[in-house]
From TrEMBL:
It holds the Pfam family IDO. This is I23O2 dioxygenase. GO terms for molecular function: heme binding; indoleamine 2,3-dioxygenase activity; L-tryptophan 2,3-dioxygenase activity; metal ion binding. Belongs to the indoleamine 2,3-dioxygenase family. One of its GO terms (biological process) is 'de novo' NAD+ biosynthetic process from L-tryptophan. Coiled coil: none annotated. InterPro entries: Indolamine_dOase (IPR000898), Trp/Indoleamine_2_3_dOase-like (IPR037217).
Length: 398
């Protein structure tokens, strides 16, 4: 007879593959598809020329000439994700081609209908979000592993740097994601040694995420980010430039409102917060919960599964184990430091960049509607400081 501890008898409660989480890439799509089948050539052709079409103000006219394609020839998740990526980039370009004052109020049917259908199939909103901008938007340029984006927007090397540094933060989190699954298993098995090791792994991974984020300074020019790139991450919810939202022609006669791309749509910190038992303010929690609707469904389910797991904090407190307590606090401390560093980055790339743009000639007319707000629509500094402070409050006092 097999022992009770065989893998058949006691499977890991959080088998990553069940939630479309990769052992190697975490929440990133492993080796995303780069081309859609031939019938979708008109989409790919426009998507690959977005920076040029936007620079020459020709994107909208090109979209108007685009045939309305059926989505029924798209097969499997990879093709659906690439279609969502392509249509979301074309959509944000179409809406913001003429800047804030000239934002489009109606998305034409030949773009709106297929984008809606693909979004429904994936359980994602019909707008450019973190999954399109980063998770599904990377490729290897050559066998040695140099990375590049699949689809781009204006912003040149700074845009490329912004996407790829964010991707490196996602990659750095992978050992931490695996550590969460191992720690939950260790709690259920009452294996304090394995739990201690998993908590050390998690703290190390969060530290590596901060180091990856620091590379932003080397690859992204604050002036280009603020005046050129940021508008394309803006949504049509809680945005004074589009107070009524956007009409998706052929889908609904009423305008619909969706938040823009935001780091709050990354599953990583949601998973870590739930695991570490961090409770944010009511307002911050409401915003973060809303951002979960912008994650792929399986990733959302992963966070919900962590919520249902036994409480790590309660386990550590009741164990009375000083080593576990210290390892737990190291995780909290690393996460608070990551959030502090994120505040420093936002200060440089938004507040300071906004002041400089107002003071002198800039690469382009800076957007004003979202000054002081995140692209997801949150009041950015009060939100980031609030979640950093509530993270610190999660510490176990000696």
């Amino acid at each position: 007879m097999e022992s009770r501890h065989s893998t058949e008898e006691t499977p890991l409660p959080l088998v990553l593959s069940r939630f479309h989480v990769s052992e190697e890439y975490g929440f990133l799509l492993p080796d995303p598809l780069r081309e859609l089948p031939a019938p979708y050539g008109p989409w790919m052709e426009i998507a690959h020329r977005l920076p040029q079409l936007l620079a020459s103000h020709q994107l909208r006219s090109r979209v108007h000439q685009m045939p309305q394609l059926s989505t029924q020839h798209l097969r499997g998740l990879e093709e659906l994700h690439l279609a969502h990526l392509v249509l979301s980039f074309i959509t944000t370009g179409y809406v913001w081609q003429e800047g804030e004052e000239g934002s489009a109020k109606v998305l034409p049917q030949n773009l709106a209908v297929p984008f809606w259908e693909v979004s429904q199939a994936l359980g994602l909103p019909p707008i450019l979000s973190h999954v399109d901008f980063v998770l599904a938007n990377w490729r290897r340029k050559n066998p040695s592993g140099n990375l590049d984006t699949i689809i781009s927007l204006p912003g040149g090397e700074s845009l490329r740097g912004f996407i790829l540094v964010t991707l490196l933060v996602e990659r750095a989190a992978v050992p931490g994601i695996k550590a969460v699954a191992q720690a939950i298993h260790a709690i259920l098995q009452l294996d304090e040694e394995a739990l201690h090791k998993a908590l050390q792994e998690l703290a190390g991974a969060i530290g590596d995420m901060s180091r990856a984020l620091k590379r932003m300074h080397d690859h992204v020019d604050p002036a280009v980010f603020y005046t050129v790139i940021r508008i394309f991450l803006s949504g049509w919810k809680d945005n004074p430039a589009m107070p009524d939202g956007l009409i998706y022609e052929g889908v609904s006669q009423e305008p619909m409102a969706y938040s823009g791309g935001s780091a709050a749509q990354s599953t990583i910190l949601h998973a870590f917060d739930e695991f570490l038992g961090i409770h944010h303010s009511e307002e911050s929690t409401a915003f973060l919960r809303r951002m979960r609707d912008y994650m792929p469904k399986p990733h959302r389910a992963f966070v919900e599964e962590i919520c249902r797991a036994p409480s790590l904090k309660q386990h550590v407190l009741s164990s009375g184990d000083a080593r576990l307590c210290k390892a737990f606090n190291q995780c909290i401390s690393a996460l608070a430091d990551f959030r502090s560093y994120h505040i420093a980055i936002v200060t440089k790339y938004i507040t300071t960049a906004a002041a400089k743009a107002r003071a002198g000639p800039s690469v382009a007319k800076p957007p004003s509607a979202l000054e002081g707000k995140g692209t997801g629509g949150s009041h950015i500094f009060s939100f980031l400081k609030s979640i950093r402070d509530t993270t610190r409050e999660g510490m176990i006092s000696a």
